[in-house]
Amino acid sequence: PITALIVKEATRIGAGPSCHDPKLSKVNLFTLLSLWMEVFPRDQPEDSERSQVSIRGTGLVVVHQGKVLGLHCSGVDLHAAQAAIIQHGAKLAGCQLYFSRRPCATCLKMIINAGVSQISFWPGDPEISMLSTSLSVMEDVVLDAVAVEKLKSNSRPHICVLLQPLAPGLLQFVEETSRESDFMKRMTEDDLGMNEQDLFNSLMKVILKICFLVGTSQQHKEILIQMGLENLCVEPYFSNLRNNMAALVEILAAVAAGLPQNQYGFYSENCATTPPHPGAVSQEVARHCIIQARLLAYRTEDPKVGVGAVIWARGRSAGCRGTGCLDLVGCGYNAYPAGSEYAEYPQMDCTQEDRQRRKYRYIIHAEQNALTFRTRDVKPEELTMMFLTKCPCDECIPLIRGAGITHIYTSDQDRDKDKGDISYLRFSTLEDIRKFVVNGCIRKHSRQTEQEYGNKKLCTENTKSLPSGS
Ligand SMILES: O=c1ccn([C@H]2C[C@H](O)[C@@H](COP(=O)(O)OP(=O)(O)OP(=O)(O)O)O2)c(=O)[nH]1
């Protein structure tokens, strides 16, 4: 299953029965989402040539009252923070911003001015890179660093590094559940000679190479000192910081390794009443968004199954943003009603005897939270795509249709099952929403065209060839 975060496993590795840890803290979830946004698949390379200074692509998560309001990344011309300013304007007042790099002075002055309440950044190489060895850019790097320090010391928002140690057992739990993802299962089923663990480890290594971490301790300390964070260079803080950073990057690598790129993909299902329709996004973008949903699922309050949902809309203009035509509509995970105490509600599942104490009438589904706390409306003229870690249930299908979602990307997990308290029968008969389901190996069947594969069609459209707004 794509995200059966089976917390029975978690119980085995240490969490007590009334507590469903290990789970991701909100701070770490937002930080991980910001790192993942930094590597959002872009149509065009960033335009860093106009400036001598080496500007690094940056990811940004905008949070308002604990809910994600925006997911952004730098693109041609616009830095991530600028994209957020353009999109949210004065709605940024009171928001918390999570950056994958310390933002440059040009961005910082605008977001401070917008009245955000807090800015947290990943304490690696900043947006204006300090890892460059070129003397010609050093002057600009130093000028930017000085300006950032001045803005920081005079600013009202709290500018800080927010990282939390992982819950005990979380990394092991994430690795176990990621290794069991639909994508991994299909790969090992198709290729029996393949050693799942070796494959998973090698995929993780590829992702770990993305330079979220500063190579050596010495280099890292130099960067921290230049960023005015010399207090973090003192032991034991420095070692703790590096360990926390490395552990978070490993979580991200494990989640992403569960969905190997370009190997297994989403197939579009035939639909009797609607004409063939191209995929709304490329396989690469679909995979990226499902990984976002999987990260969200690790914050579930369900003692057994975590589900994550992310909704993106494809609007008219790309606007030089890293996300191209895509705008976040909302995201969520399954949890008990906002503001309630976890222990207030029943937590039993279908396999347990006492029906009175089952969770189903109390828990809010990932799709329900994503729609309730959406940051913008679903517009009829746009394609609106929901990325889900698990097949949507019959309680959610009318909500998804009613909201005007046009595409669902998901897995076959629990599909066509009726478990009594919860059923998954309506998804298969759903005809007015395009369905893309994890299935089959792209390499084996087709990589370039939308080609028939049984009753499934592979979504292979390349983002580069997408006409905007069609
Ligand atoms: O579209 C859906 C369907 C379910 N859920 C959540 C609600 C609930 O928290 C959990 C139920 O999962 P499942 O159907 O797997 O039931 P279970 O009884 O927990 O597990 P099992 O698979 O053993 O029956 O998933 C969603 O968020 N969205």
UniProtKB/TrEMBL annotation:
Its EC number is 3.5.4.5. SUPFAM superfamilies: Cytidine deaminase-like. Residues 35-138, 284-432 form the CMP/dCMP-type deaminase domain. It catalyses: 2'-deoxycytidine + H2O + H(+) = 2'-deoxyuridine + NH4(+); cytidine + H2O + H(+) = uridine + NH4(+). GO terms for molecular function: dCMP deaminase activity; zinc ion binding. Its cofactor is Zn(2+). Pfam families: dCMP_cyt_deam_1. InterPro entries: APOBEC/CMP_deaminase_Zn-bd, CMP_dCMP_dom, Cytidine_deaminase-like, dCMP_deaminase-rel. Keywords: Hydrolase, Metal-binding, Repeat, Zinc. One of its GO terms (cellular component) is cytoplasm. Belongs to the cytidine and deoxycytidylate deaminase family. This is Cytidine and dCMP deaminase domain-containing protein 1. It comes from Poecilia latipinna (sailfin molly). The lineage of its organism: Eukaryota, Metazoa, Chordata, Craniata, Vertebrata.
